Amino acid sequence: TQVFQLLEVLYSEFDSEARKQGVFKVETNGDNYVAVVGLPDPRYDHALVMAQFAQRCLGRFRDLMKELELSLGPGTAKLGMRIGMHSGPVTAGVLRGERQRFQLFGDTISTARQLESTGVRNMVQISQETAELLKTAGLINTLSPREEVISVTGKGQLQTYWLHTNFPTKNTDVSFYDTDTFFEVGKASTPTIYEMQPSLHEAPKTARRNFLSDMKSLRAKSLKGEREKKELTPWTSWHSWSSISVANDSTEEELERLITWNASVLETHLQKILSQRKESKRTRRNSKTLSLVSTPPIPYIDELSEAVAMPSFNRDAVNRIMNQGYKMTPLPEKVRTELHNYVTRIAALYRGVNFHNFEHASHVTMSANKLMNKVCSPMLFNGNKKNEKKENKGGNTTKAQEADFFFSTYGIGLDPLAQFAIVFAALIHDVDHTGIPNFELIKENADLGSQYKNRTVAEQNSIHIALSILMEPKFENLRLCIYTDEESKQRFRQLLINVVVATDIADRDRMGKEKARWERAFADVSSSEELWQNKSDEELAQIDVSLKATLVLEQIMLASDVAHTMQHWLTFVKWNEKLFRELWAAYSSGRGTIDPRINWYQGQISFYDGYIIPLAKKLKECGVFGSAGEEYLSFALKNREEWTEKGEEISAQFIQSITMSGA
Question: Which of 108, 180, 269, 285 is spaced 20 to 30 Å from 596 by Cα?
């Protein structure tokens, strides 16, 4: 669904640019976009127009990926596109049949397609023919020959050129042609732009001037964005980015981007807290009424709650959210600055391990935020019941729909503090993770083990770090935005402890208790609606949803922590290799007892069968997550099937990789 939405938005932008430039869109085929200049009417300036179109599309693509990052996740800005351009004669026509459509045929279209497929992320590769036309137009300084020739079917080895659109500086340490300096091409989307016309004699000066002006504007905008980012992150002035681990190949820009994205996600949830606080007319209390002193490390597992208290049913609040939504209140600038600095501090404390690093934390945050948004969408419950398909004439929800929304989400949809707590927990849940299992931590550090009763040591340590930093005086405004009294402070703390401790799936005793709690709470979901149907508001307010809500929140965290196993196959393989390398690093250094080279293939199958698929079924069966529950289960089953077919070969590649690299 997200891929479809992304392409729909992207192609709409390309269509808009095409209309402005007089470019003719031929078709879209999956993630390929085909366009031409000179059809149906010939144009002598076709190469210039198509070059300008390619440059503008690439610039708009970059802007869109940054704009969509908050809604689609931090990986969105890493997406790229390849563009191929060629000039020459083409055959065009409409093929008759059931689905008639205009198509292009011939050597020119084939060459353009191969120029795209052999291209590099976020670059425009053009043929010798197109390059000559642009040189004739006076644009020789915008071209650079590709260092290596490419092989094109039917033509053999061809010299091609890069059309400059991202302006690498002369002093840069990165080669303009070095594909290794870009993110993996295999992950790039490839909207293809084809340009086909036989001749260009003399380009108008205005076309050339517009093209160069566009490129200068794009560069100026890029520099402006860099300056704005530096102004937004004052913390970087006194701390080196090299200490923050996202991934081995991450850049400083990537680190800043992830921090800003995480802060933006948390900011959205904080805005909901402020909105609810304002609507409920709860005043901000004096900070002196709150305990601001950080406590020493304690066994946080002693604070685990069977069921964290959740707000009771409130008709006015439900009606307001379902019909009006949250009136988002901008955060005070002091709070925004403290939030950004807090995320940066947390990021700095993630270690340089292969799997449990800041990139993983960001991925978990993205997944938790997605699931939380699914839970909190009134559209999932607004009129989707068989006996409640119609709304009131005035467009407002019925009382039955309001009850359905509240109790179908177990109150989570009306609890912005709980929503914030889960996303916050996702961010901090592995901070300071050393890449070794808990039992090894206990063996290496007896004092740490005794502090936390020799159980769930890494998770409790992460909780302690996160809470200790939050309690520092410099984050006072942030704290008072999250909670205003001891009651809300304690509830935030309990939610955080419950969901972070839940991620220790190696604790068999706790996992057994969690299973028993789930079976007790969700023994018969199909008949649960009877609990709230045809009841007065007073009776509804007496129904306690705390246990079910707590369990659902824990499931959100558990699913998010292993979300890569229930997402696209390539995402799963990427993170699976990272985990393999982390376990190997621990084992090869004598800090782990599990040799991942032994039985890795079968181990992943067992993990899917014993944990991932049952977890995905819970997401679907509890009925809270809408289409996301079905989506996660579907991906889990598909990935399990594909691993069965390809896993042995992939496992062998993992082993070969660490053997050759000596990692």
Answer: 180
**Upper half-sphere CA count for residue 154 (Cβ side, 13 Å):** 9
Cα–Cα distance for residue pair 250/242, rounded to 1 Å: 10
- Find the largest Cα–Cα distance for the chain: 82
The residue type found at 489 is K
The residue count for the chain: 663
Structure token pair of residue 560? 């998010």
Separation CA 426–CA 436 (nearest Å):
19
Q: Which of 640, 511, 514 is nearest to 567 (CA)?
A: 640
Give the DSSP H/E element, type plus range, for residue 510.
Answer: helix 508-521
How far from chain centre, in Å, is Cα 258?
Answer: 10
- pTM passes above 0.90: no
DSSP conformational letter for 608: I
d(CA 624, CA 89): 56
The answer to whether the peptide bond before residue 234 is cis (omega within 30 degrees of 0) is: no
- Cα–Cα dist 119/182, whole Å: 12
